[in-house]
Amino acid sequence: MPAHHYQLFDPLLSVADAERMVQLCERFGAYGMYSQEASESDIGEGLAQRHDAVMNYIKRGGRRAQDEPLAVLAARTNYFRESYAYGDEILIDGIEPFQRHAGFVEAARAVHGRPVIVPAIVYANILLPGQELAVHTDVPEFRGANRKKFPQWLMVAMHHSGLFDAWRMPIVTGVSWFSACAGGEFIFYPDGADGAPALLPAKCNTAILLDTDSVFHGVERVGVDAELAPLRPGMRLVCDGGGRWSVRDGDAIVAAYAWDELRFSVSWKAYCFTDEAEHRAWREHTDDLALDAILDRLVADLQSRGRLGDARPAPTDLALQIIDEYIKFPA
Ligand SMILES: [Fe+2]
Fold it and tell me: In whole angstroms, what separates CA 307 from the centre of its chain?
C-alpha cells in the first residue's frame, strides 16, 4: 500500500469525448505562459511565489541535472496554461461533462475519506518539446489562507509543517492527458519524498487522481532530445488550425509545432469537505486563520526545534528558514 492513495483511469473518457477535449483545446485558441510573479507580501518580500520549488530546481540544474543558464531553466518550466472552468464559471462551452466527471468525484471521496466534493477549477497545461516541470507539491488552501492572500511558498510550508491541519481544505487533483507526445512522463512519489518515484506515461485519454498538495510530482522532459524554443514570458501558444500550433511573440512566429509534439493535459481540482457545516465555515469565513497567528505558530515551532533563538529574524530571512525547515524535497 502506498502512503498516499491514488487512482488511475485508462481510459478516462469515451473515444468520442476524448476527441472533443482536443477540439475544445483548439477552439480555446490561444494559451498564455504561466510565469512566476514575485511576492508582494510583507513576509519574504522579493521571493518568487514558488521560491521553494524554483530554488530546488535550480539547485539541481533541472530534471536532468544539467548545468544550464538560469534563463534556459526558467524557459524549460515556463509552460502554457489557461483555465476552462473556475468554480461555477464555465470559461469554454463543452467542458461541463469533464468538470462533473463521476469517476473523478468518486475517486476524490476515497483519497481523503471526505464525501462532499466541490469542483474548484479545470485548467489546461501545454508543454512544448524541451519543456519539463520541476518536482513540487501544489499550493494547498486553508480557511483564511489561500494563494490570493498570501505567498504560495508559505502555504506549501504550512501544509508540510503539519501545524495547520485543522484549517486545511483538502483538495484532490485529477490530471488527464489528451496528446501523443514523446516523453513528458508524470513523475510522482506515492510513498513520500523518501520513497521511490513512480513514472506514468502521459498516454492519451488516461488520468491519475491524487492529493498533489501532499504528493511530490513533476513532468519529465517532453520530446526526444528536442530543442527548446527561445521562450520569453509574455509569449503565447496559438492554434493555427489543421493540427498546427505556433508560439507567438506579438505577431512574430517564434516556433511551430504539430499536435503530436505537444503535451496537452487537463487538470481537475476539487475541494473535499467532511460535511456541509465544514463547507459553510469555509464559504462564510467563520473560522479563518490570520497571518500573525500563522507566523507566530511557525516561529514557536522553529524555536521548539532549536532552530531559532528568542529574537525573530528579518521577514525574508524568516521566510527562507521556514522553507528550508519544512519543505523536504525528494533526494
Ligand atoms: Fe502540480
Answer: 30
pLDDT of residue 36: 55
| CA of residue 308 to ligand 1 center, whole Å | 31
Residue 127 and residue 183 in contact, taking contact as beta carbons nearer than 8 Å: no
Q: What are 193-209's pLDDT values in tens digits?
A: 999 999 999 999 999 99
User: How far is C-alpha 299 from the geometric centre of its chain's CA atoms?
Assistant: 27
Q: Which pLDDT does position 154 carry in this prediction?
A: 95
Cα 229 to ligand 1 centre (Å): 23
Name the nearest CA neighbour of 294 among 151, 112, 138.
151
- 78 Cα: distance to centroid of ligand 1 (angstroms): 13
What distances in angstroms separate CA 17 from CA 14, 22, 99, 170, 175, one per listed residue?
5, 9, 13, 29, 16
- At 300, the amino acid letter reads A
Tens digits of residue pLDDT in 249-281 = 999 999 999 999 999 999 999 999 999 999 998
**How many angstroms is it from 205 CA to the middle of ligand 1?**
19
Res 132 pLDDT > 90: yes
238 CA to centre of ligand 1 in angstroms: 23
Cα 73 from Cα 226, distance rounded (Å):
14
Q: Are 209 and 7 in contact (CB under 8 A)?
A: yes
* Distant-in-sequence, close-in-space partners of 218: CB < 8 Å, separation ≥ 6: 63, 132, 133, 134, 135, 136, 186, 187, 188
Tell me how far the alpha carbon of residue 33 lies from the centroid of ligand 1, in angstroms: 15
Segment 53-68 shows an average pLDDT of 78
Question: Would you call 217 exposed, middle or buried from its count of C-beta atoms within 10 A (0-12, 13-18, 19+)?
Answer: buried
CA 57 to chain centroid: 15
Report how far ligand 1's centroid is from the alpha carbon of 217 (Å).
6
